[in-house]
Write a structure and sequence with these properties.
little secondary structure, 1 helix
Length: about 70
């Protein structure tokens, strides 16, 4: 993880954003397990998914929320 400041090739960022304080120096991080689908979720695929729901079978409020992050359902 890390952004800007001196890079491996000695260059620096050119977009004017110097990153956040916790990004320097560049360092390794560990992420939790996750699943990656075999197919990209395109706008068309997402629309077909959403269109399968009718007024009577909509997900309930909060369904699908991340239990570790408030207000994500």
């Amino acid at each position: 993880m890390g952004r800007c400041g001196p890079t491996y090739d000695g260059s620096t960022c050119t977009d004017g954003f110097d990153g956040y304080p916790d990004e320097l120096p560049e360092h390794s991080i560990t992420v939790a397990d996750f699943r990656l689908d075999a197919f990209e979720v395109t706008v068309g695929r997402f629309r077909r998914f959403v269109n399968q729901y009718t007024g009577s079978n909509l997900p309930s409020e909060g369904q699908g929320s991340n239990p570790n992050l408030p207000d994500t359902g």
